[in-house]
Design a protein that fits this description.
This protein has 188 residues and is an alpha/beta fold. Helices cover 52% and strands 13% of the residues. It contains five helices and five strands; from the N terminus they run H-E-H-E-H-E-H-E-E-H. A five-stranded parallel β-sheet has the order 2-1-3-4-5, sandwiched between helices. Helix 1 packs parallel to helix 5, helix 2 runs parallel beside helix 5 and helix 3 packs parallel to helix 4.
């Protein structure tokens, strides 16, 4: 059934723009994801854990990351120590202080909005000497100022929350596959 009001080029535009942005940033994004996978693998093999967090839509990204780290992506392996902390709770900072230990990973997703609970929890993670792995927009205006030289920043291309979410979804899958490869080797 054809709809005369339907404009195919308009509906294709977001896909084409996102594909172009991904193509232009693929090498840089892959490099940062490699560093993030190395940090996570190092922490896990040293007995640490990964605490994942985000607020609003980014909370779902954190939940998916923790789930993929625990369950694995496409290969069978023992579960990894990962936990998603609820971003809606006012006690996100208390959770970080109770569960985080030096050598653990604080993996946070920011869609570059007003995220005071995530900023406070990231500050608490930093104070407890957790390694920060931060997925943010290229501006890194919310969590970026908290990064240290030993932390890992994964700059997601774009500025709109919807595009950052879409790219983060793809990036978190790549990250979890990279962790599996670091732990299990390449697929034969």
């Amino acid at each position: 059934m054809s709809d005369p009001q339907f404009q195919q080029p308009f509906s294709q535009q977001p896909f084409l723009e996102t594909a172009d942005v991904l193509y232009q940033s693929a090498d840089r994004l892959a490099l940062h994801l490699h560093y993030a996978a190395q940090a996570i693998t190092h922490a896990l093999t040293a007995g640490g854990k990964v605490l994942c967090a985000g607020v609003a839509e980014a909370e779902w990204l954190a939940q998916q990351t923790a789930s993929l780290l625990v369950q694995g992506v496409s290969r069978e392996r023992p579960p990894l120590a990962a936990l998603a902390l609820p971003g809606k709770d006012d006690n996100l900072v208390a959770q970080v202080r109770a569960l985080g230990h030096p050598g653990d990973i604080w993996l946070a997703f920011s869609l570059e909005r007003d995220e005071p609970a995530l900023v406070a929890a990231t500050e608490a993670a930093r104070e407890q000497d957790l390694t920060l792995v931060l997925f943010t927009g290229e501006a890194a205006s919310v969590l970026g100022p908290l990064l240290r030289d030993t932390d890992v920043w994964v700059p997601l291309p774009g500025h709109q929350a919807a595009r950052l979410f879409a790219v983060a979804w793809l990036a978190l899958h790549s990250l979890c596959e990279a962790v599996d490869t670091h732990l299990l080797g390449d697929v034969a």
